[in-house]
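Side project, low priority. Logging it here so it doesn't get lost.
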Amino acid sequence: MADRAAAWLRLKSAAERREILIAALRDTSSSTQGLPEQASSLVKGSWPLIITTNYDDILPVANEREPGALPLRVLGRSAQDCAQVIRGLDVIQDLTVWYIQGHVAGVAASVRQPCPRLEALLDEVVIGHQQYQGVINSATAFRRAFSEVFRRRSLLFVGSGLAESYFVNLIAETLFALGPSPSVHYALFSRADLEKVDPEFLAVRLGITPVVYGDTHRELPGALSRIAVSRDNPVAAQSSGAMLSRLSFEVPRGDHAGECQDRVEVTIRFAGLSAPRPHACVALSVGLDRIDDRIEPGYGQMAWRFFIENRKLYDDPEAWFSVPQAQSGRLFRLGTEDSPHPVFLVGAREGRHSENSDERSLAAITEATREALAAIEEAGFEKVSMGVFSAGEGQEHDVAYCLIAQLSGVRTFLDSSSGSRMLHHIEICVFDGRIWAPVIEGRINVGDLLTSRLARVLVRVADRQGRWDEYALSVAHGSTVGDVLQSYKITGEDADVSARPLTRGLTSTIYDAPVFPGMIIEVQPLISSPTDCSLPPNAPAAQAASREKNDIPARN
């Protein structure tokens, strides 16, 4: 029946096929009007990659409806999409939903007009036996990409995918060709689900450990909520098992080519801030409040937590003064000038550079870090422990970029100072799992950020059919987007250029924006008419949804 349906659908236009599939996927008999609860629970987590055998757009729409949702990318089985999936194992990029059996936009939210990107994903829908065989036997790039993910990441299987021979064959092919995976994999099952699978086969032959979360499928949303690191509570709970909690590097000051240089230990630690020991200090991230003509520190989550945990030492957090060496007005110190405490307050915000003194930017984090370290060394401290600056809620980009910007500030400080100086240990304490995870996964190359004078950027160039060509370049830190694109002869007259993340808000053209480590520069053809496509080639389907949501849950 599936093969016959697949053959019949081939005769239809893309629009007809999409409408037929939408009608088949929507559950009109359901009495609930909303997204499945398990989808809403799933997108609360900080998953860098979600792989789904479903067709519908429930996950992108659920993500869009989350408060403070970050951008989401929808990828399929094409060679270019598979390359982006693999690249996501090594760099910071948007949350990705990888549709390995095709994608149908419009099931959970209506789409005004599908663009070529969504039509290409529609063409990847797998229904019949013949189509499954085609994917398994001829989609070489997809199979290689799946093998790479299976071997390099620990996967958590949710739902009925492991009961499908298609999915089992993909895993078995990887194991047959490359041997057992070095990563540990898990699968969530209710006790009722276990009757449909062979747990011993999963564990022994596929290397997947079954985990029972409850008696029935109704308990799945609660299980997912317990596993996920919630966006509403980003401070990761300490694991009861063994975990990597510290990385240390010895970084030379000044000219890297010199000999016998003074070296500074830079440590990244998964822990909270504690009271400083003798000859050491603490640097807390604060906001900046404009009071009349002056700027004052505004205490946030990091500062209040430190004060509460150390209330016996610092019982008067309202006593502070501006550090005289800091000309930007972004640096303060607890206590009084006659009796200062070893606690610095760093306002990694735009400050006097903006009408809104509390405005965030990655450039401000880099500048404030360099300025704070210079003042701390001038004050005679040998060690400083810092939290990740400006990493609270309300970010327009992945919060991990805040650490990258702070490491860039450490690098510029060490580059600008040489000889034997007082400060010899810089510690950055990370207590957000969304930042720590890419550090231990290697997606944030700490050593490179501390020592290299080059920034690695990715250039992606699209054609009018939504196909991408990609280039990775290393350029000097002072370069601009225009400098990067100059070698491609790309100008504003023939292309639509965007870049993320931006170090601060644009004051001129995108070509004048400075590069940032890990920046992705996307170049697309100029669209002659706003009705050509309701989505840019790589945007999530949810962003093209009209405000009139069709809240009918999907069966699968």
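Brief comment: The mean pLDDT is 84.
Revisit when time allows.
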